[in-house]
Amino acid sequence: MAGKPPQKPRKTTSLKKGPAQPAATVTPIESAPKGAETSDRKLPSLNQEIQEQIRTRAYELFVERGRHEGHDREDWERAEAEVRSKYQREKSA
Q: Does the residue 45 lie in any domain?
C-alpha cells in the first residue's frame, strides 16, 4: 500500500484584491432634507437610546458585582427590566 504524498496547503483568496465595491446609495441622516423626520425615525432613535441605557446599567451591575464574569445574561436582563419599567412609568404618567 503506497502512502499519499503530502498535500500542499490551500491558497487563500482572502488576501486577493477584487473589484472595488460600489459606493452606497443611501442618503446619510445628516444629509436628509429638513422636516423629513417622521415618527418612524424617532422610534429607532428612542430604541437606540433605550439600548444604550440598558448597556450602561448592565455594566454598572457588573461592576457592583465585583467584576465577576459569567453573570452577563443576569445583568443584562435585570438592566433591561429596570430601564423598560422606567420608560413604562414615564409613558403612562
A: yes
pLDDT tens readout for residues 33-80: 555 444 445 667 889 999 999 999 999 999 999 999 999 999 999 999
Contacting residues for 59 by C-beta, under 8 A, at least 6 apart: 75
Q: What is the domain count for the chain?
A: 1
User: Is 42 a member of any domain?
Assistant: yes
User: What is the pTM (predicted TM-score) of this model?
Assistant: 0.52
The three-state DSSP-derived secondary structure of the chain is: CCCCCCCCCCCCCCCCCCCCCCCCCCCCHHHCCCCCCCHHHHHHHHHHHHHHHHHHHHHHHHHHCCCCCCCHHHHHHHHHHHHHHHHHHHHHC
